[in-house]
Amino acid sequence: MLEYLMNGLLTIVTDPMNIIMLLAAIAIGYIGGAIPGVSGTMLVVIMLPVTYALEPEAAFILLTGIYAITAFSGAISAILLRTPGTPEAVVTTFDGYPMAQQGNPGRALGIAIFCSVVGGVFGTLCLIFITPALAQVALSFSSPEYFALAVMGLTVVASLSGKELTKGLIGVFFGLMISVIGMDPLTGTLRYTFGSTSLSSGINLIPVIIGLFALSEFLKKSKDSHVVQEAMTNVKTKIFEMEVFKKIKGTIARSNLIGVFIGILPGVGATTASMLSYSETVRWSKEEEKESYGKGNPKGIAASETANNAAAMGTLVPLLSLGIPGGATAAVLLGAFVLHGMQPGPMLFKTEPNLMYTIFAGLLLANIAMLLVSKPFIKIFKQVVNIPYYVLGPLVVVFCVIGTYTVRNNYIDILIMVVFAIIGYILEKYKFPLATIILGVVLGPLTESEFRRSIQMADGDFTIFLTRPISLILLIISALMLFYPSINDYFKKRKMAKANIQA
Q1: How far apart are CA 373 and CA 197, in angstroms?
Q2: Which of 6, 160, 412, 446 has most Cβ atoms within 10 angstroms of its Cβ?
Q3: Are 176 and 447 in contact (CB under 8 A)?
Q4: What are the DSSP calls for 197-221, one per residue?
Q5: H-helix or E-strand containing 281?
Q6: For the chain, how are helix, strand and coil distributed in percent, rounded to 5?
Q7: Helices 56-81 + 40-47 axis angle, to 10
Q8: Counting beta carbons within 10 angstroms of the beta carbon of residue 371, is it exposed (0 to 12), middle (13 to 18) or buried (19 or more)?
Q9: Which residues contact 160 (CB under 8 A, 6 or more apart)?
C-alpha cells in the first residue's frame, strides 16, 4: 500500500500536466467554492467535459482536488459574509460570522483552515486504508452480487430524497429509463431511438449532468436577487494559535470520527456530518459554556469544519471500493469514471492500482495545500466576491455549452443539455431531488446488464439472488436503507400520538 502511495506521489510530481491539474484544482476549488451560488458539485460538473481530453490521472487529480478544496472554501464566505459558499459550510456560519463580527475574522478563518486540513487529511488516510480492504472483499463478487450492489447504490435515493421518498423513486426510475435509450449492450438491438441515428449510442451523461445541475442552477439564480454584502477589511488570518488549539483539540478528535463515519454512509453527506458534529459538541460541553454557541465559540467552527472535510473524503470510500456514490458530487465523479471507460469498484484496484493511489496522493496534497494557499487566496477573495452574478452566470453558461459540445462534437448534445436544464429547473421548483436522476442514469447500465447475466447464469431462475448469501445480505440491507426513513417516521408519529393521549 505504501509503495503504491509513493508511486502515486511520484506520478504527480514527475508529470508537469499532473502538477498543473493539481494547481488548477486548488485555484478553481478556492474561487468557486468561496463565491456564494457556485457549489462544489457545479464546479465538478462544469470541469467534467474538460477532463475528456486528459489522461485519467490528470483528470481525477483535477476533479477530486476541486471536490476536496470546496469542502473548505465555502467557509470563507460563511465567516466573512454570513453567506456559505457551499452547503457544507452552513453550520460554520453559526459561530464563524459572530466571531468575525466581534473583531476576530482572522482567528475564525484560522480555526476553519487548520481544522479543515486536519479533517481532510484524517479523512484521506481513512480513505486510503479502508477502501482497498472493502474492495478486496468485493473481488469475490459475481453478477448476482454486482446486481445487488447496484440495487444498494440505487437505494441511496432514500437519503438523497429526504422526506420526499416518492419523488426520489420517480427520479431514479426516470434516470433508469434514460439509461436504456440506445443500443442494447447484450443483443445490439436499438431501443427507444425513434429512428434517430443521433440517439443510437444513447444519451450522453455529460449533457444530462450539466443540464440538470449547472444550467438549471443558472436559470434559478438568474431570477434571484444578488446583493453582495461588503466583505470585512483588514483580515489577518491566524492559522495556528496554541491557546485556541488547547480549547478545540477534543472537539477536533471527536469531529474527525463523526465525519468519517457519517461520510462512509452512502447518501448522508458532509452537511449532515457537520450538523451532527456541532450538536454533539454542544452536548459534550459544560452547561455554562452551552450558551456561548452561536455567539462566536471556536469549538463550533472546529466541529463544523473538521467534520465536513473528513466526511467529504469519507463519501469517496463507498464510491471507490463498491461503486456506490455517497452523494451528488460522488455521483458526478462516478459519471467521470464511466466517461473514461472505467467502472469504479473492486476491480479498479486490481486493474488500475496506480490511478487509485494517484487519486489518494492528490487528495493528500490538495488538503495539505490549504495551509499554504489559504492566506493569499483570502486577500484575493475580497475582490473576486464582488463579481455580480449577471457577469458570472453567463460565463457559466458559455463553459457549459463549450464543454457539452466538445465531448462528442454533436449539436444534439447541446439540445439535450437545454432540455434537461428546463426539466431540472421545473423539478427543483417542486423540491425534486435531481441527484436521484443521475443515480438512475449512471447505475442503470450496470443494474440491467448484471441482472440479465444473473438470470442467464441461473437458466431463468430468479431465486439466484436469494440463494447466494452475499447478494441476499446486500438486498436485505438495500430494503432496510430504502424503507427505514418511512418506518422511523411511522414509529415517531405513534410515539407522539401516545404522548398526546396521555397528556
Answers
A1: 49
A2: 160
A3: yes
A4: GGGTT---HHHHHIIIIIIHHHHHH
A5: helix 270-284
A6: 75, 0, 25
A7: 150
A8: middle
A9: 168, 267, 327, 328, 433, 435, 436, 439
CA distance 464 to 270: 37
Cα 112 from Cα 135, distance rounded (Å): 33
CA distances from 478 to 226, 406, 471, 475 (A): 42, 38, 10, 5
Q: Give the phi and the psi of residue 200 in degrees, each rounded to 5.
A: -65, -30
- The grid coordinates of residue 400 equal 457549459
* Helix (H/G/I), strand (E/B), else coil: 257: helix
Q: Are 29 and 66 in contact (CB under 8 A)?
A: yes
Which triple of cell numbers denotes residue 123? Answer: 479523512
Q: What are phi and psi of 244, to 5 degrees?
A: -70, -40
DSSP string, 426-493: HHHHTT--THHHHHHHHHHHHHHHHHHHHHHHTTT-TTHHHHSHHHHHHHHHHHHHHHHHHHHHHHHH
| Radius of gyration over every alpha carbon of the chain, rounded to an integer in angstroms | 23
Grid cell locating 359: 487519486
353: three-class secondary structure by DSSP: helix
Query: What's the burial of 375, exposed, middle or buried (CB within 10 Å: 0-12/13-18/19+)?
Result: middle
> What is the DSSP code (8-state) at residue 87?
G
Burial-class residue 334 by CB neighbours within 10 Å (0-12, 13-18, 19+).
buried
DSSP annotation string for 473-485? HHHHHHHHHHHHH
Q: How far apart are CA 54 and CA 223, in angstroms?
A: 36
User: The C-alpha cell of 277 is what?
Assistant: 458534529
C-beta separation of 70 from 39 below 8 A: yes
* Cβ-contact 90, 276 below 8 angstroms: no
Segment 420-478, tens digit of pLDDT: 999 989 998 888 878 788 778 877 887 888 898 899 888 888 889 888 888 898 889 88
- How many degrees, rounded to 5, is the angle at CA 44 between CA 40 and CA 46? 115
Residue 191: phi and psi, rounded to 5, are -130, 130
pTM (2 d.p.): 0.69
Cα within 13 Å of Cα(120), Cβ side: 29
- Residue 96 one-letter amino acid: G
Nearest-angstrom CA–CA distance, 231 and 34: 12
Q: What is the pLDDT of residues 312-371, one digit of tens each?
A: 888 888 888 877 776 677 878 888 888 888 877 777 878 888 888 899 999 999 988 888
Is-contact 281 299, C-beta < 8 A?
yes
Q: How far apart are CA 40 and CA 313, in angstroms?
A: 13
